[in-house]
Amino acid sequence: MGTTIEDVARAAQVSVATVSRALRGLPNVAPSTRERVVAVASRLDYVADPTASRLAVGRRMVVGLVVPMLGQWYYAKLFSGVEAVATVSGYDVLPFTTSGPGGSERFVRTLPFRKRVDGLILADAPFDSDQLAAVTATGVPIVTLGTFTAGISGIAVDNAAAAQLAVGHLTGLGHTRIALIGGIADDPFHFSVPVDRFHGYQRALSAAGLTYDPSLVVPGNFSPEGGAEAMHQLLAAPTPPTAVFACSDEMAIGAIQVARDAGLGVPRDLSVIGIDDHDISAYVGLTTIRQDVIGQGERIAQLLLDRLEGFEGGSHAQEDIHHEAHPTRLVVRRTTGPKPPVAAHPRE
Amino acid sequence: MGTTIEDVARAAQVSVATVSRALRGLPNVAPSTRERVVAVASRLDYVADPTASRLAVGRRMVVGLVVPMLGQWYYAKLFSGVEAVATVSGYDVLPFTTSGPGGSERFVRTLPFRKRVDGLILADAPFDSDQLAAVTATGVPIVTLGTFTAGISGIAVDNAAAAQLAVGHLTGLGHTRIALIGGIADDPFHFSVPVDRFHGYQRALSAAGLTYDPSLVVPGNFSPEGGAEAMHQLLAAPTPPTAVFACSDEMAIGAIQVARDAGLGVPRDLSVIGIDDHDISAYVGLTTIRQDVIGQGERIAQLLLDRLEGFEGGSHAQEDIHHEAHPTRLVVRRTTGPKPPVAAHPRE
DNA sequence: TCACGATGTGAAAACGCTTGCACAAGGCCT
DNA sequence: AGGCCTTGTGCAAGCGTTTTCACATCGTGA
């Protein structure tokens, strides 16, 4: 296993420089020489040590992916999308999570990506502007996903529009008491996605001539558990909603379960819509707003890679920053329906 | 950003060797010197370049995680467990997927982990013994997850026992026609998990005095889609099952949806049990066999790291191989119930 | 026939760190 | 007082590549 370029050079009776050139397809190598080197290299099972070559070249061939957490559906999908395109360009992807111990403060304080990555993807980055400044000050090329930042290229779905689409679907069905399960109140990671969706929610309400009732807005922590808790809270109110817009499918699913346990029919007594189109949403019949997460991951990775390749080859001209909206789509399934004639109360 | 160890040495009026020693807490550095070096280093925002240090030390500080795919719930959780413990020991984790283009053949042919990782975690590795031999021949320390291999340490749940537990639950409820939705027939990645679960299924049947009916065993591809298709196939049979054991929760969820769409009550007419205890299973009321995926990831990573650390410090004595079974547990929820008095047929 | 650009090749200097070895300076013992 | 560990420090040789530069060699046009 430990064959080095020198072993190959010796065996092929050439210098290491020639081996390097021959194996990487650089010009100025005689065809016969190249052939011989390649043959020897493959006979010896030689592969270049990336550590050494990265040191020599000065590029780490690593992109960092900063996410609140792995293991959650959205970020897992994202990672796999990013990984897929990074790999074909020879880049590794190194995840950094900001919701663990220490959270984003630790991340910003230690800047653990320094000297380790060539570029950074900030996904739903929970940073305030000071923190962001600290990160950009390192000089590492950055793109964002899920939120737009002035001066930084990125892609995102239009969260406000998506939310508005969702809530519009509900108002279109005649609902007037529409709850929001989001991530606002306790805001574990204070990123902008839930905020934007909240705004879309409000917009849709006023578009339908409805007044905003703060008691119908509860946090859901973007988990099924959180969604369930939120639903409990909503059902305990004097006049429960007839429809719920959950800011993620996982919360929606948690909410639906609680509602059904309470004896409510979904969508007979209560309509529920989510966002994401989680892998299993189709199989629980959840109406939702679909977004292509893997596609977003692939796209943002490509955006960063283009920038990185551009850096080496081209002018260091001011990169024109680029904000790209990704589409979303309403998928109507079986958890939303017309407003019930009389509001049902959960049975005790 | 580009401060090197030499900059620090110059500023602190010591040699680079001393800087290296001081910053890494090695002995034989005068307290006053160390203090000064640390101060200077932090003033200059110095961090060691891992690429250079890895080259010098000869260890890559990377563990490879070989999985069929990322982005699926099980492997995403696994990755996050592995990542969590690897990180605290300073290791990066580099995923390799074997179900993409080229599949495991490509992986075995190119051995893309050479010179890149210090150790390898093979999760549900779809390798035959020749392929496995090719991988081990590289000399890279290996552990397996999800399956036991002679001569290689690993951890796994007892899949046969888990399956037996699941099917035993169904026979205990009086069911006699019990289907299996697994991954056997077309076997996209031919790994052993579905095989073991199939054996557990058979064992549970004979334990209950039931005869095995091959027509009740259909592949499900470990996806909700696959589970749905499988259920369609099962319902089309002359005498459909009254209970289904799905080899993953995702398949179970797909199956349930199809059954309900066909007018069957779950669990009134049809009981369904899965394996995994997926994040959302609790919220769709799915009866299942629970396994702690993140815990498995953490444990297998620790096992590998211990081995790696052992390598450097201690004797190269024959590592005692270590096979560790991880527990599973039956979680009864609301998709399983007693055998219906008369078998229901799907309504057309 | 001679200078001259192409072309192929090798020597050696990076890249930024770690670490073995040599060495100086003190303390401690006898 | 003289030898001897111990402690603190620096020099320099790696680690395995890439890449610059210089140097042959060969053909080619004048």
List the helices and strands and how they pair.
2 copies of one chain form a homodimer.
Chain A (H helix, E strand, L loop, with lengths): L4 H8 L3 H9 L6 H13 L6 H8 L4 E6 L5 H16 L3 E6 L5 H8 L8 E5 L5 H8 L5 E4 L8 E4 L1 H14 L5 E5 L9 H16 L9 E3 L4 H12 L7 E4 L2 H13 L9 E6 L10 E4 L2 H21 L9 E4 L2 E3 L17
Parallel strand pairs in A: 1-2, 1-3, 3-4, 4-5, 5-11, 6-7, 6-8, 8-9, 9-10
Antiparallel strand pairs in A: 10-12
Helix pairs in contact in A: 1-2, 1-3, 2-3, 5-12, 8-9, 10-11
Chain A binds a DNA duplex (30 and 30 nucleotides) through helix 2 and helix 4.
Q: Mind describing the biggest β-sheet of chain A?
A: 6 strands, parallel
- Taking the alpha carbons of the first and last residues of chain A, their distance comes to 69 Å
Q: Which two chains have the most extensive interface, and how many residues on each?
A: A-B, 47 and 48 residues
Oligomerization category of the chains in this entry: homodimer
Strand order of the largest sheet of chain A: 2-1-3-4-5-11
* Whole-angstrom Rg of chain A: 26 Å
What's the helical proportion of residues of chain A? Answer: 40-55%
Class of secondary structure makeup of chain A: alpha/beta
**Percentage of residues in strands of chain A:** 15-25%
Looking at the structure, what is the overall shape of chain A? elongated
Return the average pLDDT of chain A rounded to an integer.
92
Number of helices of chain A: 12
Order of helices and strands of chain A: HHHHEHEHEHEEHEHEHEHEEHEE
Number of strands of chain A: 12
Stretches of chain A where pLDDT is under 50 for at least 5 consecutive residues are 312-317
